[in-house]
Amino acid sequence: MVETPCVKVCRMLEGGSLCRGCGRTLDEIARWTSMSSEERRAVMAGLAERLRQADIQDNASRSEA
Helix, strand, coil shares of the chain as percentages rounded to 5? Predict the structure, then answer.
């Protein structure tokens, strides 16, 4: 079984940069099953920070509106 960060909340952030549920890019999602375990682990290591940064940007965008 392939390890995955998917949480079944498949919705891209505005601009299509990251999945709101898992934090992966569309390219990473598409290539996930063909990535090596090392590649998947490297991506997974940065997902929490990606989502944290996306939340900061999203909150900043809303407060400017």
Answer: 55, 5, 40
